[in-house]
Amino acid sequence: MAIHPQCRAFLDILAGAGGPPLEQLPVAEARAATQGMLALGHPHESVASVEDRTVPGPAHPITVRVYRPALDARLPALMFFHGGGFVLGDLESHDRECRALANATGAAVIAVDYRRAPEHPFPAAPDDAYAATKYVAEHAGEFGIDPGQLVVAGDSAGGTLAAVVALMSVDRGGPALKFQLLVYPLVDYTDESPSMAEYGADHFLTRGVMDWFADLYVPRADDRRHPYASPLFAESLRGLPPAFVITAECDPLRDQGEAYARRLQAAGVPVQLKRYDGMIHPFFSLGGMVDGGRQALSDAANAVRQALRGAVTA
User: Fold this and answer.
1) Is 156 among the residues known to form the active site?
2) Which of 268, 251, 140 is closest to 186 using CA atoms?
3) Model confidence over 232-244: pLDDT tens digits?
4) Can you list the positions of beta strands (E) in the chain?
5) 60 carries an active-site annotation
6) For the domain 5-308, what is the CATH superfamily, name and number?
7) Is 169 annotated as catalytic?
8) φ and ψ at 41, to 5 degrees?
9) What is the pLDDT of residues 249-274, one digit of tens each?
10) Closest Cα to residue 96, out of 67, 124, 76?
């Protein structure tokens, strides 16, 4: 299927803005350049409360932003990790998705401001993501959440972190997770699949920018096969929580995300996998102009709700 016209319109907007590719910019300028995408994101939704807090981290305190759709004493919780190749993105870049997910799932969404590369290369991001998740689970009363109803979620690099936190939680004996929502995750830094070849140029996420991200985040080649960088290399996926894996047809990461879903299924993990036809890599964040982004967020929220009700099936 050809790229969806709404995704093509998004790419035309980017092309019309001009400027060099992100990988040719200094990191600070690349971060500033991507802020322009916020206007194309999901509509801004009100939630009952938004609060920035800090939790202890392995290197320094980690800021988390807590979105509550209701002021009930105990809500389910969704730990959210933003995308951006481990270099870009922050709490502001994914604020609208977090608000929408909080309202649509009925869960408190806790977004994690993990350390980014190149200032803090691998394994800083997964160490922060796991530390924040563990702290929230162990101090559930402070956050007004139910530690037995804990979900991890993220898009792109954030999807990687959600998958990695699930792995770490099994490896380290907790916390117990109810579900993992993986939106076009990067799970294999060695990927040379057909989708990587077909969509690695002119579809937003290019091989050039992916190589730039990789060089900044995992500069040591040996680390790129570490399961906490590339979860597809994990020796075993048994015991992981049920998952919903979202992929986009016209995304270089499509095949590796779907390969991870198949490995989860082979390990006995209940998995829902959905490929969105005609979509490109950032579509989940483009609900302001791409219908598929709104649909995917609705599907994701429905999958989370079912998981929290204990109704997940393979």
Assistant:
1) yes
2) 251
3) 999 999 999 999 9
4) 49-55, 62-68, 75-81, 108-112, 145-155, 179-183, 243-248, 271-276
5) no
6) Alpha/Beta hydrolase fold, catalytic domain (3.40.50.1820)
7) no
8) -80, -170
9) 999 999 999 999 999 999 999 999 99
10) 67
